[in-house]
Amino acid sequence: MSKEITFDKFIRWAGVAILVLAVLYVVNYLSEVLLPFFIAWFFAYLLYPVVKFIENKLHIKVRALSILLAMGAAIALVGGVLWLIIPPMIDQFDKLGDVLTRWLHQTTHTNNLTLLIREWLQNNQEQIEHFLKSKDFSDALKTTMPKVFSVVGQTANIVLSIVASMITLLYMFFILLDYETLTANWVRIFPKKNRPFWHALMHDVERELNNYIRGQGMVALCMGIMFCIGFTIIGFPMAIGLGILIGIMDLVPYLHTFALIPTAFLAMLKAADTGQNFWVVFGLAFLVFCVVQVITDMVVTPRIMGKAMGLNPAILLLSLSVWGALLGFIGLIVALPLTTLLIAYWQRYVTREKPQYHELKAAIEKTKQQENNQETSSTDTTEK
Question: I need a labelling partner for 264 at 20 to 30 A (CA). Which of 67, 243, 295, 368 fits?
Answer without folding.
Answer: 295
